[in-house]
Amino acid sequence: MAMSSILNTDDIKKALDAFAVLMWLLCFSVCPVADSFDHKKFFELVGLKSKSADDVKKVFTVLDADNSGFIEEEELKFVLKGFAKDGRDLTDKETKAFLKAADKDGDGKIGVDEFAALVKE
User: Fold this and answer.
1) Is 38 annotated as belonging to a binding site?
2) For residue 116, what are the contacts with CB-CB under 8 A and spacing of at least 6?
């Protein structure tokens, strides 16, 4: 299933572009910028916050690349690529922060219910 069948393609592009610009600043600016990925802002920009619980679960399924029923840390690093092939990789710091925010049971991975709760925060 393609992400564009669940979310608006323009919203996906807008959200990815917003965080790509911040990453460019992080890498090339004379003024250091902290790691820029903010899952709450991203979910809002991409339109996921306003989607039904069923659509959020469909997005989870797309992001669960190995179909294990969980989004593990390695998959999480590439989560933006799940929205568009040219999405950037998350930094290690961003990945760990994202995992920490979502992993409420402390098992080191994100289940569908944890993902849904994170999206709706």
Assistant:
1) no
2) 53, 56, 57, 60
